[in-house]
Amino acid sequence: MDSLSKIPVKVEQPKISYKLHWQRRALQFGTILFALLIPATGLFRIDLVVGAFVILDRQIWWSDFWLVFGTWMLFASGLVMVYSTVGTSFCGWSCPQNTLAEWANYLTRKLLGKRAEISLHGEKMQVASKKNKWSYWLLLGVILMATSMGIALIPLFYFYPLDVIWSFITLREDLRLAGSIHYIYTIFVLVIFVNIAFIRHFWCRFMCVYKVWQHGFKTKQTLHITYDKSRSDECVKCNYCETSCFIDLDPRKTDIYDTCINCGECVTACDNLHARKGQKGLLRFELGERHEKKRPFFRVNLGSLSTRMKWTMPFTLIGLVMFIWGILSYDRYHLAVYRADVMQSHGIHEYRIRVSNKFYEPARVSVSVEGLSPDQYKLESTQAVFDTVGRIDLSLRILEGLPAGLHSLLVRAQSKDGWQASYRVQHFVGRS
Fold it and tell me: Cα–Cα distance between 349 and 396 in angstroms, integer?
């Protein structure tokens, strides 16, 4: 017996996994990065100078029917598919508001103590006595303000090029910046600061309209948290999953319409708690009908997804085809001719030829007039040269001496990349 007692015994605890937690963190901050890459890569932005949307560096007009409606249909059907399948997971996994609120809670607890958290019920913050100093409060305020100033810059990327934003940051004068941009930016900073400093998850639970919109597409089969009631005796003296929920929800009592955002923090907390006993947690994600008994997850997934895809997939495919066709058939130039409305004697003699470049690249378009001899008209220029997207007006003047009657003119435009268009003008000359 003495020899057996001398044998060293090593107790190994099951490895605690935070895989779901870090996957969510990666997607949360990846969403913010993606929000920056969207305008930086030219995928989508708004051109304030001409007041137009830009997709893939293409200026979108209402005449670009296939791109406009293809994008809308693809986007709308995709969102409906996401909402009806994973419910409000956007809130828990991607929403910038929730990401900033969680980060602000973490920072507050780090600087002021583990219980120093803003309560949704209005309870007083419990600051650790050792950390209740002005230096910690000042550091917290400075970090939150710096974060607010950085986040407030993100919307600017959707309206201004990078060099203009750099001019704004470095306080250099730039004529492309709106005169009120500094006031607008200041308001954005203050709103974001108040939000992450005081409001935080109060917005998620009681004020978010977008969350209510997502609820409109939830069903009994939408992704939800399921509780294993057969092992409920293990929860008699435990509420660890409830305390881990930053929405103040009891994950064991979820319903179709509740405040759960499918973040999975309660699942991670319960799994890690039971991992010490070599057991699986009592909470899990489930996609499909809510049942007491656990069913094969793979079969539940296929059945639930097929039901939704049957209705939304046709619209998604139609939108995708329209979008692709819109890109392939995109007309990067536009030609139009207008009357200059300068009345001389008995008719109009001035016309305006407008050539538009809708693509954010340099271009050169040649313009010519047919139907009249060169001595019967005067064209301001035969070339429209673009440094980037824009519109150029060329003056066309019909000289005197034409016989009375109706004269048909044809204005032609052609670019080096093969594009060409024509615009017919009916010019009337009255009797003198």
Answer: 8
> Which CATH architecture describes the domain 333-429?
Sandwich (2.60)
DSSP state of 392: E
CA-closest candidate to residue 291, choices 280, 279, 303: 303
Q: Say how many residues make up the chain.
A: 432
Helix (H, G, I), strand (E, B) or coil at 230: helix
Q: Is the pLDDT of residue 44 over 50?
A: yes
Q: pTM for the whole thing?
A: 0.78
Decide if pLDDT at 148 tops 70: yes
Please tell me the distance from the alpha carbon of residue 95 to that of residue 29, in angstroms, as a whole number: 10
Q: Which of 296, 237, 225, 232 is nearest to 267 (CA)?
A: 225
pLDDT digits (tens, 9 = 90+) for 279-288: 888 998 887 6
CA–CA distance, 291 with 420 (Å, rounded to integer)? 64
Per-position DSSP letters for 32-82, written without gaps between them: HHHHHHHHHTTSEEEETTTTEEEETTEEE-TT-HHHHHHHHHHHHHHHHHH
User: Containing H/E element for 396?
Assistant: strand 390-398
Q: Distance (Å, rounded) from C-alpha 225 to C-alpha 261?
A: 10
Domain residue extents for the chain: 19-324, 333-429
Amino acid in the structure at residue 63: S
How does DSSP classify residue 257? S
CA gap 318, 76 in Å, rounded: 12
Beta carbons within 8 Å of 350's beta carbon, 6+ residues apart: 339, 340, 341, 342, 395, 396, 397, 398
Strands (E), 50-171: 52-55, 58-60
Cα–Cα distances (Å) from 115 to 11, 105, 237, 296, in that order, read: 32, 10, 21, 41
DSSP assignment, residue 286?
E
